[in-house]
Amino acid sequence: MKDVAARAGVSLGTVSNVLNRPEMVSERTRHRVQAAIEALGFVRNESARQLRGGGSRTLAYVVLDAANPFFTDVARGIQDAADAEGLAVYLCNSGEDRHRQAAYLDLLEQQRVEGVLITPIDAGDPRIADLARRGTPVVVVDRGAGPGHCSVTVDDVLGGDLAVTHLLDTGHERIAFIGGPRTLGQVGDRIAGAQRALARAGLSPDALTVLETSRLDVAEGRRAGERLAGLPLARRPTAAFCANDLLALGLLQQMVRLGLRVPEDMAIVGYDDIEFAEAAAVPLTSVSQPRHLLGRTAAELLLNESRGGAEHEHRQVVFDPELVVRTSTRLRPSRPLTPRPTTGTPLLGGGPAQPTPESR
């Protein structure tokens, strides 16, 4: 900075103002300092600046599984909000590993990031509460949180209800749920929604065959397909609701490999409506979440908290999902239609999802 000041013929304080408070410097002087910066190849020492100021101009997003395009789309929404404020975003992949998640939270606190967004393995993890208590704002993404944090999520119970209601409407009474581990809150909520739809239709909980998986990926979907195909024909479900699209795509691949037809032998509904769902060999019916909006809204809440001080009030924003119907399910009109959940949410993908009241 001293070299820049000498080349531009200004004081060290003027160079500092150009870098940090440019509105305080005349346009002519600003241009002279910027020309000196460019000529000398000066790069500011951001680490030193963080030490002086006690913080950084970075946010962090700890994702559950970076291989899942759902989280990539959420991250794009976060990045858009951060770009508007001139902030950088660290992307950290927990890979559904509790120890890795804990290590990232410790590291990010040491780096003094402005705030942390997290899709947690367990929203009740005490490390998350400790981080916020020690002064690092935290927003929980794609999972509800208690009153101690802001959160942005989608109503997954409703999403499970929409998926299974659609399968019931298309004539299926033996339905499989594929997903896991059940300790993930999203998985538990989607099962609860599926069971709610069955109960409303007057069916026994036994009508839902739950095949728990160890992960939410394509390989586990293929393995679930093998397990389904191995069931006796009289007991084999005729439809499957998968906890996400990666599982559904793996299941679809396995059905094709085994010579089973989709949807004639096995109707499939996924969850998330990632880009690959529509591009699959058999376009996939899926429960759609507003992924980009989830990320952008979460980042805006985080920035509001980090800059709002004691006046900030935590908010829990919940969006409604929508069902997007494609070729992987089709009407089997042998059964009367069941009543749809009374939410006012359209079953076919249309306009953007709207938030329900923001505090629950």
Provide the succession of SSEs. Answer: HHHHEHEHEHEEHEHEHEHEHEHEE
**Morphology:** elongated
* Major beta-sheet overview: 6 strands, parallel
- How big a fraction of the residues is strand? 15-25%
The count of DSSP E runs of length 2 or more, i.e. the number of strands, is 12
Give the fraction of residues assigned to helices: 40-55%
Structural class: alpha/beta
Mean pLDDT: 88
Strand order of the largest sheet: 2-1-3-4-5-11
How many helices? The count is: 13
Rg, alpha carbons: 25 Å
Report on the architecture of this protein.
This protein is α/β, with parallel strands linked by helices and 360 residues long. The chain is 42% helix and 16% strand. It is built from 13 helices and twelve strands. It has helices at 2-8, 12-20, 27-40, 46-53, 69-84, 98-110, 126-133, 156-169, 185-200, 218-229, 245-257, 275-279, 291-308, and strands spanning 58-63, 88-93, 115-118, 138-141, 150-154, 175-179, 208-212, 239-242, 267-272, 285-288, 316-319, 322-324. Strands 2-1-3-4-5-11 form a six-stranded parallel β-sheet, sandwiched between helices. Strand 9, helix 12 (275-279) and strand 10 form a beta-alpha-beta unit. Helix 1 crosses helix 3, helix 8 packs across helix 9 (185-200) and helix 10 (218-229) packs across helix 11. The longest helix has 18 residues, at 291-308. Residues 342-360 have low confidence and may be disordered.
